Amino acid sequence: MADQLTYASTVHAVDNLGAHSSPSSYPQVVKEIASFKAIIVDLDNLLISRNTVDSIPLPISRLTFRRICGSSVWEKRLRGDLSEPQAYRLLAEEFNLSNHAVQQAFQISRSKIVVDERLFQVLKRIQSNGYTVYGMTDISRQELEFVFSFAPAIDPGLFTRVFT
What we know:
This protein is an alpha/beta fold. It folds into 2 domains: 94 residues, no CATH class; 50 residues. Helices cover 45% and strands 12% of the residues. It contains 8 helices and 5 strands; from the N terminus they run H-H-E-E-H-H-H-H-E-H-E-H-E. The strands form 2 sheets. The chain has a 3-stranded parallel β-sheet with strand order 1-4-5. The longest helix has 13 residues. It is elongated. The two termini are 26 Å apart.
C-alpha cells in the first residue's frame, strides 16, 4: 500500500534509537522505513521525556501545577497574550500562591524535560527525503506548545500535523 502509515514506536528500527544505539545506525533506520510515505511519531516518551531520576520536588503540589497548566491564564500565556511575569502574577493570585513558588515550579518542571535531539535529527532527515512526518501525543495541546516554547531543539514545523 503506497500510503502506509506506521507508528514510530512500532517500527523496530526506530524503537532501537534508545540510549544503546549510535548515530552510525541511523542510515539503517532510513532504509527500514523506505516503503512508507509517512510516519507518525509518538512524541511523549519517544521524542520528549521527563527526567524522573532527578527528584527535585516542586514548591507546590503536582495537582495544583497541572491545574495551573490547564488554566485560562496559562492558555493566554501560550498564545502570547501575557508575558511570563504577568502570567506568574495572575496565577499566583488565582491559586493563592506566592509568585516565587509559581515561577520556581515552572523552572523545575522545565529543567526535567529531555528532548531526544538525535531522534529529531533522524526525523528531519526522513522529512528531507520526501516523507511526511506526523506527531501524536496524549499531552494536551497547551502543554505541548509549552514544551515547544522552551525546547529549541524541536522545530514544530517538522510535523505536518500533531494529533493530541
